[in-house]
């Protein structure tokens, strides 16, 4: 199971960190990703981290978002800085298949989603 938390309302230019707690014994061996879905749009992968800690990002968030993981806590984090109104979305984590370029990456289990967390960027 995957449960995201930490969302909220933040002003443009602000920062927020969201977390996602996972259950199961495979976590440390899985590549993980943060996904987001804005109203009326498809869910998109915005950040990924391999089991070894290598990270990559969608161009839209590169330089502003940082993904990290704590395998002991089975938790993946997304630090979001310099937030823009277009970052408003429900954020989810899930297992990812990470490829280069990052745009070729995708969700490993597309029919298995946990609880997301809403991030609203607005003044």
What attributes characterize this protein structure?
single chain; 123 residues; mainly beta; seven-stranded mixed beta sheet
Plain-language structure description:
The protein is built from no helices and 11 strands. The termini are far apart. Strands 2, 4, 5, 6, 9, 10 and 11 form a 7-stranded mixed beta sheet that branches. It has a 4-stranded antiparallel beta sheet with strand order 1-3-8-7, with no helix packed on it. The protein has strands spanning 2-5, 8-10, 16-22, 32-37, 44-49, 55-57, 65-70, 75-80, 89-97, 106-107, 117-121. A hairpin with an 8-residue loop joins strand 9 (89-97) and strand 10. It has 123 residues and is an all-beta fold.
Helix and strand arrangement:
Layout: E1 2-5, E2 8-10, E3 16-22, E4 32-37, E5 44-49, E6 55-57, E7 65-70, E8 75-80, E9 89-97, E10 106-107, E11 117-121
Parallel strand pairs: 2-11
Antiparallel strand pairs: 1-3, 3-8, 4-5, 4-9, 5-6, 7-8, 9-10, 9-11
